[in-house]
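Suppose you are handed a protein chain with no further information: no name, no annotation, nothing but its sequence. What can you learn? This example shows the usual starting point.
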Amino acid sequence: MSLKVKGSITKVLPTQTGESAKGEWKKLSFVVDTKEEYNNLYCFDIFGAEKVDEFLKYNKEGKDVEVDFNVRTNEYNGKYYTSLQAWKVFKSEPVTAKEQAPDREPSDLPF
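A reasonable first move is to predict its three-dimensional structure. Written in structure tokens, the prediction is:
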């Protein structure tokens, strides 16, 4: 299942590199602020040298983006680690106040 978030990039963390049994790896994390009242910060990961380089080429702090991502959980030594893995980041229009908090219509419901 793929999820989407729209907001502004507030921080691009330093690129991490390393070696694994499968070879060299490269990872970048970045933070998006949705400007919503609750649950407004998301920290996404991008894995792979080509994807990291592509992200850095077109994105910077302050840019409005929409991010398609997957939630991934891994188990290591009996502990579970969850990450938000971005697989598509593209330019977006700025989030407006109307998008942040849609107006509520009065209802005929008794509660």
